Amino acid sequence: MATRSQFENSSEIGVFSKLTNAYCLVAIGGSENFYSTFEAEFADVIPVVKSSIAGTRVIGRMCVGNKNGLLLPNATTDQELLHFRNCLPDSVVVQRVDERLSALGNCITCNDYVSLIHTDLDRETEELIADVLGVEVFRQTIAGNILVGSYCVFSNRGGLVHPHTSIEDLDELSSLLQVPLVAGTVNRGSEVVGAGLVANDWTAFCGLDTTATELSVIESVFKLREAQPSAIVNEMRASLIDTMT
Amino acid sequence: MGKRKSLKSSSPVLPSSPENEANGEPQESSKEEEDQPNGNSSSSPSEDSESGSEPSSGDSDSDESSGPSEDMVNVDFEFFDPRVSDFHGVKTLLRTFLDDEVWDISGFVELVLAQTTVGSVIKAGEEEDPIGVISALNLARYQECKCMEEIHKFLERKSVQKPEACNLEELWSKHSKEVGLLLSERLVNIPIELAPPLYQGLFDEVFWATEDEPTGELQEFFKFKYYLVLTRVFEELIKDEIAHENSAQRKRQKQDSQKSGELVYIKPEDEILHKLSSWSFTFPVSADSLAAHQTKGLRQMRLVMAVEAKHIESFTTQLKTLAQDE
């Protein structure tokens, strides 16, 4: 299920939060509404951690992570690092990265198996990503943009990219990532899908300005609708036994 | 297609990049909000790079450049009718209109963009993002809209215990058909030379609308007798206040409207409007996040004032003189 939300009047959900299959990070905000939206959805399933990174609230753009690990920029303070290590499950490796391009969320995008990175990222960082996050790393551009983290959001089941991505690029990326991809927008025509949307394998959150069409595209490409009971009737019928006489 | 309305105003300005300018916050030098992807940031948002490299003023007489690597580039600013595609830029400009209140900004922006006959958007080019917006919205015309009600409630709350509260209420209830909410937001570093044509353009449009609108009802909506302005100012803190400032900020103290601190106007035209206003009051900005950007010795405040329409001509003349003198 995809839910609309906003952080203090901003529809840029992906800037103030980070969502993976194992945890969810949320920025410290003026009102508790944003945090409660995530809490309501995830309650006992995965931990929802409120924090800042380097004293800023734009945590979604500063860090990158998946169920295996979390990478933080070198400007992250020691207290913040400790806070993450304490609150996240032990299976998640939390690591600070010394990298010139410190907005990791803009430069790297990943799911639990594969990742796309900014073309100018250091070799050491690339190795660290492969190590900590346990993913295969590919240097790519999206519709000519090097900020892959801003223009692409994908989970283990599907992904959304910049609307101007060509069909050839879409096919190439799709085969690299091994998930279906769709070129689309979020938040009423915004091309920066990474800033407007966060998703994991069973849920997604997007900004309040997202239109119904955009929302339905998101639900369909991330396969969120399959969580609905109707899936049983429509798709699984052949393999289910209805009655036995 | 956006109609080009007035002659371009050129001034030498050092642009960082059109995207950075457009998505920059107009009033707050926010170090946190980052809607713009920035791969090379060491957590520095668009504003930091913008303010770090801009020259001190858009002075067309002097040709100073502060360093050997900085070039002066001419930028043309143009005014256009609001368009639906300006949604994101205008929303960013109006994001702090009601401070940190959660309200229907999207609905409000839609209202502004729908009113193409009165209202303008400043852009560096037709396909660029808006860097400024100005409009006048009739209170009665939009009174049913959720966003207008929220603005009303916000102002009501902030004016409680102030003597001007009844003046405000009068405008909203009795005179609402003749009151225009004058909203003008732009990036702080836009040169002052833009202000006179901007306001002149708006008031010209208001006048033309009273004659050109298709129906009599619509024409009536632009026959403004009053303009209601909600703007941002700074107030100088006197010495003992600075010491108690941090503790005072937490408590909801009774605001003494006769604060002895002087007002510092972010937009120069606000000073002229304030002098011409029939009544006005200020209230402090409530947001913790906005308050964090306080400059030493200055407190961020909001100024609400009502200006009678008959003073507008004097305002535009004074504004022209002010811009010429700068």
From TrEMBL, chain A:
Main location: cytoplasm
Family annotation (Gene3D superfamilies): L-arginine/glycine Amidinotransferase, Chain A (3.75.10.10)
Keyword set includes Protein biosynthesis: yes
Domain of life: Eukaryota
SUPFAM superfamilies for this protein: Pentein (SSF55909)
Localization per Swiss-Prot or TrEMBL: Cytoplasm; Nucleus, Nucleolus
InterPro entries: eIF6 (IPR002769)
Key words, A-Z: Cytoplasm, Initiation factor, Nucleus, Protein biosynthesis, Ribosome biogenesis
Pfam families, alphabetized: eIF-6
Role: Binds to the 60S ribosomal subunit and prevents its association with the 40S ribosomal subunit to form the 80S initiation complex in the cytoplasm. May also be involved in ribosome biogenesis.
Sequence similarity: Belongs to the eIF-6 family.
Subunit structure: Monomer. Associates with the 60S ribosomal subunit.
Protein name in the entry: Eukaryotic translation initiation factor 6
Lineage of the species this protein comes from: Eukaryota, Viridiplantae, Streptophyta, Embryophyta, Bryophyta
TrEMBL record, chain B:
Pfam families: BCCIP (PF13862)
Biased amino acid composition, Low complexity: 8-18, 41-71
Coiled-coil residues: none
Cited InterPro entries: BCP1_family
Chain positions covered by the region annotation Disordered: 1-72
Family: Belongs to the BCP1 family.
Protein name: Protein BCCIP homolog
Species assigned in the record: Sphagnum troendelagicum
